[in-house]
Amino acid sequence: QVTLRESGPALVKPTQTLTLTCTFSGFSLSTSGMCVSWIRQPPGKALEWLARIDWDDDKYYSTSLKTRLTISKDTSKNQVVLTMTNMDPVDTATYYCARIPISSGIPGGYDYWGQGTLVTVSS
Amino acid sequence: QSALTQPASVSGSPGQSITISCTGTSSDVGGYNYVSWYQQHPGKAPKLMIYDVSNRPSGVSNRFSGSKSGNTASLTISGLQAEDEADYYCSSYTSSSYVFGTGTKVTVL
User: Cα separation of A47 and A90, whole Å?
Assistant: First the structure.
């Protein structure tokens, strides 16, 4: 069965760089059409899309955050890593990774999600 | 990229039907048939309810249906049940990225 799990620090200081890892099972990111994204949700607020990495290593970023984000994958470890630089208290949120399959060029929805990891930015 | 606009709250009695709107622009909702809807219960991860405007994943009740007209997508829940009380988010593909809606809290009276 498909599972995803986020891991990383629960607390980071302002200006630091956040590194989050998504470890997944039940599918391979080397399979054509498979993609994984990072999505975050500040406490009590809406979801915000951050980035996506595809099976062919294409990468896409939120326009407003692209200068701070880097997404990468390690297919052999079934992991996707997100780094976000220059963290600020407004970046406090639950960070989710989620899978999205693309069939014949048509993206479906995010069909499997991790449970999320809360990251607090505070000095 | 601005968030898609959803009503903050919608309510209904058990058995009734409700509709949640999701308004974007011609660059997102209106430009692609790649709108999806997610249900989120408190403290839980979102769950995919509808994808590509009107497709239901396996296992999702047929009480949930989606549609789109112009720049506005809609999610309809028919035969409202207590377990449907949750937050709902729409999302649209837009030029190599995605945008989510502002979220709607559904209350079952």
Answer: 14
